[in-house]
């Protein structure tokens, strides 16, 4: 992964944030057709940081029409290697503007800058470079069928893609959708989450500067129920790629049925991190803490359930509580901060409600779970012990810094509990017994299994889940399948 030296003393993002944030359609910054705007807040302070255009159905129409023109025009017909070169130039421009983008993302999403530096930004650039490399390597096969015919396949871009992105990793998850779609020759209308619109607008400008033709990447900011819904129901959108909550995901599948859009969904999780008695408890507890408290627990694959075998239970509870207490909560722009705010007042209230629910259900709150300060949306990391599998805090996604520690007896019990929610995104397992690890990995209902580690992702490996965790996979070659359609071609050799 790349590393960059940073000096934030001059606040590189301030100039961009001070500008009115327009939509980006057909290569131009334009106000919303209604003239309406909304405010973007800094979750660390609750203060307004930017004024953003509030798009509507008419803006979506314009953006989709621009994306269609660009698809039929320059983008799909361009040499694939040239498409790849443009994406690589874009990656260089992102790197050249790293300080600004990192600061922007940290302020807008309340992310500790140490994490944006180490993960969000480098992962976004890595994703772009990885798929830029794929642009001219997407090929079909010659498939011999009969002697008097030449039969082969080609893979064609699906067309106009609507990318709907959440607020927890706006830049990185946005790039998980943009890079493969563009490499495959698709064009895009992106709708960032209304809480975090800024990085998408900035990187779209840099894409134009890199030579991405007008209309290839459009950004329409605004509310999900208006802009997102209009995209999902638009008859000229061919594919929706969505990351967000299962509730919205269900609505997207229904809306997409109108013209049978292709759909891929990355939804929620309630991932189990399973610690057997024979594990390295120090390493497991350390990883379990970062597995739930990273990004203030607002991570789809957060290890929000820590399952611990009977003998190790008390020790892991103690270690996790100690780690929770030691995390530095504070200003996301301070490099020493480990835990920033949660994204909004609404999210903070929802998390604090779950802390109440857990206590009412009879779980023991060992530490944390209270608001910190009166400014911004900070919550102290919460550790619940004596959690029963059936409790709501064990079944429902809280999406905040709250961990439920559950006791289990043996392998069968661990699997029953780990697989016993509506989700199946990820799971972790800790043991010194390789057989135990493998048996768990084989039977876990999860798109990703981590053994003696937790939380890693890489664009080269498939990412996603089933049931309430979604449909399809992102990353790797799976994403190339998401954005291409195979075509079979028969050529009669007998004429
Ligand atoms: P959300 O579903 O409320 O919003 C996600 C996006 O959908 C936003 O851009 C929002 O504006 C838009 N949206 C809202 N209503 C819409 C509608 N009716 N039609 C179309 N679009 C609409 O989720 P969120 O609050 O932004 O993110 C949190 C959720 O996302 C959590 O449940 C989390 O688990 C999930 N998530 C999953 C992954 C993953 O990779 N599986 C990653 C990040 C977040």
Outline the structure in words.
- GO terms for molecular function: oxidoreductase activity, acting on the aldehyde or oxo group of donors, NAD or NADP as acceptor.
- InterPro entries: Ald_DH/histidinol_DH, Ald_DH_C, Ald_DH_CS_CYS, Ald_DH_CS_GLU, Ald_DH_N, Aldehyde_DH_dom.
- Keywords: Oxidation, Oxidoreductase.
- The chain has 495 residues and is of the alpha/beta class.
- It contains 16 helices and 21 strands.
- The chain is globular.
- The longest helix is centred in the N-terminal third of the chain and has 22 residues, at 113-134.
- A seven-stranded mixed sheet has the order 13-16-17-12-11-18-19, sandwiched between helices. The protein has a six-stranded mixed sheet with strand order 8-7-6-9-10-20, sandwiched between helices. A two-stranded antiparallel sheet has the order 1-2.
- It has helices at 14-18, 57-77, 80-96, 98-109, 113-134, 170-183, 198-209, 224-232, 246-256, 281-293, 313-326, 345-361, 392-395, 411-418, 434-443, 476-482, and strands at 23-25, 28-30, 37-41, 48-53, 149-157, 160-164, 187-191, 217-219, 239-243, 262-266, 272-275, 305-309, 364-367, 371-372, 378-379, 382-385, 402-408, 426-430, 448-451, 470-471, 484-492.
- It has two domains: 14-267, 3-Layer(aba) Sandwich (Aldehyde Dehydrogenase, Chain A, domain 1), CATH 3.40.605.10; 272-458, 3-Layer(aba) Sandwich (Aldehyde Dehydrogenase, Chain A, domain 2), CATH 3.40.309.
- Nicotinamide-adenine-dinucleotide is lined by residues 164-168, 173, 191, 193-194, 224-225, 228-229, 232, 243-245, 248, 251-252, 266-269, 300, 397, 399, 425, 470.
